[in-house]
Amino acid sequence: MAPNDPKQSGGFFASIASSLSNFGSAMTKSVNGLLGYEGLEVVNPEGGTEDAEEEARRGRWKQEDRDSYWKMMQKYVGSDVTSMVTLPVLIFEPMSMLQKMAELMEYSYLLDLADECEDPYMRLVYSTSWAISVYYALQRTWKPFNPILGETYEMVNHGGVTFIAEQVSHHPPVSAGHAENEHFIYDISSKVKTKFLGNSIDVYPLGRTRVTLKRDGVVLDLVPPPTKVNNLIFGRTWVDSPGEMIMTNLTTGDKAVLYFQPCGWFGAGRYEIDGYVYNANEEPKILMTGKWNESMRYQPCDSEGEPLPGTELKESWRVADAPKNDKFQYTYFAHKINSFDTAPKKLLASDSRLRPDRYALEQGDLSKAGFEKSSLEERQRAEKKNREEKGHKFTPKWFDFTNEVAATPWGDLEVYKYNGKYAEHQAAIDSASSSEEIDYRSTEFNPWQYQDLAAN
How far apart are CA 252 and CA 235, in angstroms? Predict the structure, then answer.
C-alpha cells in the first residue's frame, strides 16, 4: 500500500482513520464532515426485527411473506445464491442485470473529459468520478432480473455511445458488455458472487472492467469495492459498499485509491469517499473527497497528502436530479434505459426490454410478472436439457470466450472479448435503412438457441 494510504497516513485524511469502522460511535467525523456535509440519514446498520411490522406496512413485504421467506432461506445461509434460489417477483425491479450494467453510461461524458485531458492525474480524477457515479443508482434495493442465457441489451442515443451486453453463460452466470464512442472503449466481463448471511447478503463484483481512452491509447483497469445489502427480510433494506476502489492506469502505472467509508450508527460515514491519485512511485498528487450519492471534489496535494497552498477543492462530478417519489427509485436515465428511445433502429428480439415479466412488472401486474418469470425459467431449463442431450454448446453472438483468466480479489474470472460483429450488424442495418416504423411491443422476446424444442 502507498505510504499515503488515506486509512493509514497522518495527512489530510487522518481524521477518518480507523474510527469509522467502529459501529458504536455516532460521533465519528471524516473530512467530508469537516467540509460541511450535513443531513446524514439515520440508519441502524445492525437492522433488527423490532421494526419489521412498520416495514411490512411500507408495501414490499407482508408479515406472512417475511416469515415464509425466512423459513425458506435459512438453509442457504453462507451460500452463493446468485442463481440457485427462485425469488418472489415482488422484490424485483422492472429491469434486467444487463440493463443495470448500462447505467454506468449515464455520466459517460466524464470519460470523454478523461480522454481529452492532458494531465495524467486529472484523467484518473475524471475516470474514477465516472466509476463512482453509478453508485447512486446501485443504492436501489430492488433486485434486477437475472438475464436469460443469450439475452442482450442494446443502447444508443446517449452521448454518442453504442452499448451492447449479452448473457454469455448461465452456470456460472456471466455477462459481457461493450460500449464505445469517439473518445473511449469500455469492456467488461462480470460474474457476480454472493454470500447469503441471513438478513443480509454480501455481493462481490468478480469481474474485469477495462477502459481504453482513444486519443493516447491509455488503458485503465477498475477494481470496485464489494457491496452489502442489509436488512433483506427484517428492517429497512439499505445498501453499503465499504472498502477500496482502485483505478489503475496500466499504461503509466499511475492509480487512484479511494476508500468507501462503512456506515456506522446513526448514518455516520455513510456515502463518504476519501482518497488520492498517486503517480507510479506511489506519491500522492491529487486528493479526492465526496459522497457517492451527491458529488466528488478534488484538490492538488503535496507528497504528504496535504492540499497545496493557493489551491481549492473543485467539483469533478455531481449527481443529476432524480424524479421525486419514484416507485422504484429510478433516475431519469434508468427510465431512458427501459424505454425504446434508446433502442437502435432494429432491436434484437433477445433484448431485455422485450422480456414479458419485466414489462408486466413495469405495468404493475405482479401476478402476470410472476407467471412470465416462471415460464422463462422453465424454457431456459428445457433448453439446457436439450443442449446437453444433443452434446451442443452455447455460443454467444457478440462476444468470444478467450483463454485468458483474470485474477480478482474474490476469485478468478474467465474473460470474454467483444468480437466486433455487433458493429457489423448495425452497419448492415444502417446501409439498408428504412423509414418504416417498428412496433416493438409486437416483437416476441426470443433469446433462445432452439426455436422449436420439439423439433430438435
Answer: 46
Rounded to the nearest angstrom, the gap between the alpha carbon of residue 267 and the centroid of all alpha carbons in its chain is: 23
What's the chain's Rg over C-alpha atoms? 23
Alpha carbon of residue 4 to chain centroid = 28
Residue whose entry in the numeric block shows the C-alpha cell 422476446: 445
Which residues, other chains included, contact 203 with Cβ-Cβ below 8 Å and sequence gap of 6+?
A: 192, 193, 194, 226, 227, 228, 229
For cell 434505459, what's the residue?
A: 337
CB atoms within 10 A of CB 242: 17
Record the cell numbers describing residue 56, joined without a space.
Answer: 411490512
In this structure, what C-alpha cell is assigned to residue 284? Answer: 500522492
For 430-440, the pLDDT digits (tens) are: 888 666 667 77
pLDDT, tens digit (0-9, with 9 covering 90-100), for 222-275: 999 888 888 776 677 778 888 999 999 999 999 999 999 988 776 777 889 999
**Residue 355: C-alpha distances to residues 47, 197, 233, 348, 362 (Å):** 34, 31, 27, 12, 11
Sign of CA dihedral 53, 54, 55, 60: positive
C-alpha cell at 344: 437502435
Cβ contact 373:104 at 8 Å: no
- Strands (DSSP E) found in 170-266: 174-180, 184-196, 201-213, 218-223, 227-230, 238-240, 243-249, 255-260
**Cis before 172? omega within 30:** yes
Angle in degrees, 0-180, between the axes of helices 120-133 and 109-116, rounded to the nearest 10: 170
d(CA 25, CA 307): 28
Whether pTM > 0.90 for this model: the answer is no
Whether the Cβ atoms of residue 178 and residue 167 lie closer than 8 Å to each other = no
Q: Each residue of 367-391: pLDDT tens digit?
A: 999 999 999 999 999 999 999 999 9
